[in-house]
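Reminder: ligand-aware prediction takes two inputs, not one.
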Amino acid sequence: MGISSPILKLNALATTVNRISEGLNRIDRIMEEEPIKISEDVKIPSEFDIKFNDVSFAYNKDGQEVLKKIKFTAYQGEITALVGPSGSGKSTIAQLIPRFWDVNNGSITIGDIDIKSIENEKLMDIISFVFQDNFLLTDTIFNNILIGSPNAQKKEVIDAAKAARCHEFIKALPNGYDTYVGNKGTYLSGGEKQRISVARAILKNAPILILDEATAFADPENEYEMQLALQKLIKNKTVLVIAHRLTTIVDANKIIVIENGEISELGTHDSLIANNGLYKKMWEAYNASLNWKVDSRFIKEVKKE
Ligand SMILES: Nc1ncnc2c1ncn2[C@@H]1O[C@H](COP(=O)(O)OP(=O)(O)OP(=O)(O)O)[C@@H](O)[C@H]1O
Ligand SMILES: [Mg+2]
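Here is what comes back for the chain with magnesium ion:
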């Protein structure tokens, strides 16, 4: 199945370049990969609950399973959060939904339709991503947001940027929305790049939002701006958030704890704290790290005097 529309080409390119950043070996592997097949019986979902039905997955055919019998439902209109140690499989779960890879066992459905029966282009239409490694094309900021909805009007692009809290910093750049970014373009911080990705996702306005939160930046101002932006994004959508800053998902409808490719706990923040397991340990460690940051700032202040 060939990739036809410009948006799909851009999506494919974005995906590929993300993978470059994770190592050239992976590119080699992607080149060797057989094209993912679509079933003959193409269907279009009209509802957007996402169900994982005992999904197992290994990146390499004879390799170790990275996901083992993952089973959960992310309901439309709710926020489902994935948390867990680094390398536990959270991004892999997220990337199976748009079929960057195909499951080895089990199935994933959207609105009770197996994603293998959904036409690739349609699948891309109904999912918005904000990637962990934010990827911007070497192009203007305006075009980087426009990818979300290539036929959008200028005003819609600017409104999306305003909603994603990036209009102000874009306007402050010498060339504003015409500033070149990407590989050799103007340097933007991780937080700024992520907000441009959020603007792109707001413009796209797809019913499913997958947000793979970046770990690299956790300054409180950016976190607050992002929260405001995301509140606009998530109404009535199926939202899957991979969170490193646990304060961002305290109110999630469901929190799924992934450990070594398996679901080790599932519940709300309160029920998981009561459970006294890995989530509680992560929560305590997270809070200790916040206190540590405050303390280290305080120590610097004291040293200055
Ligand atoms: N393209 C790939 N090819 C082979 N192995 C991979 C690939 N991507 C991830 N892995 C491996 O799969 C496992 C799960 O990785 P994944 O990226 O899903 O973890 P994660 O929970 O998102 O971690 P983090 O919190 O650091 O983002 C890890 O062992 C990782 O090394
Ligand atoms: Mg990840």
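The two ends are 66 Å apart (CA to CA). The chain has a mean pLDDT of 82. We will return to this case in the review session.
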